[in-house]
Amino acid sequence: MIAGESSLAYEEIITMNLVTCRAIGIGAYLVRLGQRTIQVDNSHIILTGAGALNKVLGREVYTSNNQLGGIQIMHNNGVTHCTVCDDFEGVFTLLQWLSYMPMCKSSPVPIVHSKDPIDRPVEFVPTKAPYDPRWMLAGRPSQTPKGSWQNGFFDHGSFMEIMQPWAQSVVVGRARLGGIPTGVVAVETRSVELSIPADPANLDSEAKIIQQAGQVWFPDSAFKTAQAIKDLNREGLPLIVFANWRGFSGGMKDMYDQVLKFGAYIVDGLREYQQPVLVYIPPQAELRGGSWVVIDPTINPRHMEMYADKDSRGGVLEPEGTVEIKFRRKDLVKTMRRVDPVYMGLAEKLGTPELSPPDRKELETKLKEREEFLLPIYHQVAVQFADLHDTPGRMQEKGVITDILEWQTSRQFFYWRLRRLLLEETVKRKIQAANSELTDGQVQAMLRRWFVEAEGAVKAYLWDNNEEVVGWLERQLAEEEGARSVIDENIKYIRRDHILKQIRSLVQANPEVAMDSIVHMTQHISPTQRTEVVRILSTMETSASS
Description:
- This protein has 22 helices and 20 strands.
- By secondary structure, it is of the alpha/beta class.
- Among the domains are: 1-100, Alpha-Beta Complex (2-enoyl-CoA Hydratase, Chain A, domain 1), CATH 3.90.226.10; 319-392, no CATH class; 449-509, no CATH class.
- A hairpin with a 7-residue loop joins strand 6 (140-141) and strand 7.
- Helix 1 packs parallel to helix 2 (26-33), helix 12 (319-326) crosses helix 15 (357-388) and helix 13 crosses helix 14.
- Residues 1-113 form the CoA carboxyltransferase N-terminal domain.
């Protein structure tokens, strides 16, 4: 029963675990069912004690419970999200996590005053060379003597990583953007090592270290991404994804290890996400193939948006792959024959019928030499041409991204965009509580129309300005005495019209209860209103008889 309740609690509320000593048997399962786990360094999470296992195996295999479920096992496999040195630090970490989360399901996220200016530039700039993605998120010490710190994207000191040693090719955690708590998913660009320990119960097993390339989703990192998305959705946090994947690792071992299943879990998590999801392709990053498929905004069009930096790239195939398929050697030779005057001249001479065999052989040799000389040049031009199809301009033209951004000012843009989306979501929930039949497109059109009505047609162009719309929405939602809220007034009429429509349809579908309904309703209205009803009915009777 307690296991079922714990599983249900994870779906309904925010659950957290602090393992201070030992979690054994059902206790270990309860820890996992609660998902967000903090483990004290000398504690362990086990199913069976070391002594009992040794008796089952018939020999002394395990020396301690720590060997079975200590932090070197549970933190490295993602069961434990964070480790601490003592109970006090564990409780402090729990409180830090709670500070990012809403008070209850219907509450807005807790926005705190940030000492880090929202309009400051993002100083650390991602490079083509591999770098630590945490520098992009949280900043790093300056590499020059003049400065002491290079600021990252989020507020200084607000980024808290979880599940760090597990699936290190993906970085996940929580952070604040201008005081707004958000979930974060970023990509490791460097190669990482996956360490698989030897099994003491199997004398033939040995420890393995496997190299994993950066910018690639492996089975473990895909599972980590899906797990983080699922947890952050339950917490009610908006999500920012810094997309920089070249695809999934599709080798035989990875396919056997269920990379396809865990990639599908990412799609499931994003489809179910109930808060804004902002996908951003940062500078020098690229989004390709299957990795684009699983984070495409069409998965959840109500909540997802995708943006790209002006120096990023995106497409199904990399330029080299596109050229290999669409512009092969024979196509390059055709292009040479069409545009290179030397090649054209040699080909024309070679087509002369009265050529002697020695001359023909000499021309064929020259033609071949010219072809080999031009081939790498033409190939490079073809790759460059294919790359032009992957630029942010083309992505925006094809409608697969919302806008093109600059890294230096992206922090300010995303702050106002996130504020606007959160406020719009609050209003949309109010509207759909009044009339659940309205679609998201209809609600969005209503909001725009109300904005133009309130601000005037002259200011209609400001609807595309996030900062202006945030100011308007905050004024409308503020509870001021005597203030007339356009939004509240319109929601009142939407609710009234929806209720009248429901009553009308019920009476039309069940005409036999119409008389009883009128009698029942007249018992719940004032004498003045009853008199008015009688007058209306009399008027209708007079009109019908005439």
